[in-house]
Design goal:
Blueprint lengths: L12 E6 L5 E6 L2 E6 L4 E7 H4 E8 L5 E11 L5 E6 L4 E7 L6 E4 L3 E5 L3 E6 L6 E6 L9 E2 L9 E5 L5 E6 L12 E4 L5 E6 L5 E6 L4 E6 L4 E7 L7 E6 L5 E6 L3 E6 L15 H4 L6 E2 L2 E4 L6 E5 L4 E6 L3 E7 L5 E9 L9
Parallel strand pairs: 20-24
Antiparallel strand pairs: 1-2, 2-3, 3-4, 5-6, 6-7, 7-8, 9-10, 10-11, 11-12, 13-14, 14-15, 15-16, 17-18, 18-19, 19-20, 21-22, 22-23, 23-25, 26-27, 27-28, 28-29
Length: 352
């Protein structure tokens, strides 16, 4: 999500994020924190402002009892430079990590905790013992762009974040790290402009990138560092909020401030649409070489939104205004609404 604090809506939602298998999501609010199951849509946990304060970021650890929380918003109970780990079984905070600057993002794996500041990435062993492994310097990273391959059994155990060079992505292999050391970072020169969005697939074999221009999404092979496919969201600049791979990596979806969710095929790219000007490639250049979405559907425009894949070719979209939408797409590009607008119960507790 892009600058969550700047996009908070009147319903009190500050930030939204899916867990590692995209089956749950966190809803960070001015009035605390909610955890929801996606299918069926059910509230699983509710932490009020007395316990959490207002919350800017929350990262689930799959579907376990551990949550990493960062305060923010208008009524924080904790400092914005601190990551707190909450145990929902013991009903208390069990770990605290404090930094010299505000925390921009936090990511969890079953064996690692990663914290992004505006110019640093900190990596810790997790959950026990919780020890700092290493710290990496980055270029200015106000969005806190940082992702890790979620599975310990993944083909590649990767950490990725903006490199020092404009538009580049740095990859660090977490399988070869020990205290005080990290593997030599590998760089992909992904875009000419600043990065705006990053995503990694479940196996760590592919990374998707988008720049602040927001017209193209590029998908890269993380082993060979080569471009696999270039996907065109549109021709007009846009702010991308979210990119996600399907669990199988057969498809990719993205959301932007244009109010459209785009769905692309990755395994069989012949399913993606091509420009009607493709025969004029010599004149129009790269514009016609990139692939356009297989399918798309609309959400409230200019309202920040996250998207992910559900079961049976379903795509879920959740927006900061509290709307929840589910569409099912077919390989011929049809997109059918399976659920009408559902509004999450996200009013501030004071309003009940």
């Amino acid at each position: 999500m892009k600058s969550p604090e700047a996009m908070a809506s009147g319903r009190g939602v500050i930030n939204l994020r899916f867990n590692q298998d995209q089956g749950c999501f966190t809803c960070c609010m001015e009035s605390g924190l909610r955890i929801y199951n996606v299918d069926p849509l059910v509230e699983k946990a509710h932490f009020d402002i007395e316990l959490m304060g207002s919350v800017a970021h929350c990262e689930m650890l799959h579907r376990t009892n551990l949550l990493a929380v960062v305060a923010g918003g208008s009524r924080p109970k904790f400092a914005e430079n601190t990551v707190l780990v909450y145990d929902d079984i013991s009903k208390k905070f069990v770990l605290e990590f404090t930094f010299t600057a505000p925390v921009k993002a936090v990511r969890l794996r079953r064996d690692k905790l990663v914290v992004a500041l505006s110019q640093q990435i900190h990596v810790f062993t997790f959950p026990s013992p919780a020890q700092r492994l290493f710290t990496l310097e980055t270029r200015e990273n106000v969005l806190g762009l940082c992702e890790v391959s979620p599975l310990q059994t993944a083909e590649r155990q990767l950490l990725m974040f903006p490199g020092h060079k404009l538009g580049s992505v740095q990859l660090v292999d977490l399988a070869y790290t020990e205290a005080g050391m990290s593997s030599a970072p590998v760089t992909i020169n992904a875009h000419q402009g600043e990065l705006a969005c990053l995503a990694v697939n479940q196996q760590g074999t592919m990374v998707a990138t988008a720049s602040s221009k927001g017209t193209l999404i590029r998908v890269w092979d993380t082993s060979q560092r080569i471009l696999l496919v270039e996907l065109r969201r549109g021709s007009d600049p846009a702010t991308l909020y979210c990119i996600n791979f399907s669990v199988s990596s057969d498809f990719l979806c993205c959301s932007s401030d244009k109010g459209t969710i785009h769905i692309f095929a990755l395994k069989d790219t012949r399913l993606n649409r091509r420009s009607t000007f493709s025969k004029m490639g010599g004149i129009l250049g790269n514009y016609v070489e990139s692939q356009w979405a297989l399918a798309n559907f609309t959400v409230p425009p200019e309202c920040a939104c996250i998207c992910a894949f559900g079961s049976r070719n379903a795509v879920i979209a959740i927006c900061l205004d509290g709307t929840f939408q589910k569409y099912v797409f077919s390989q011929d590009g049809n997109c059918n609404r399976e659920s009408f607008d559902v509004y999450l119960d996200v009013c501030d507790d004071d309003e009940h």
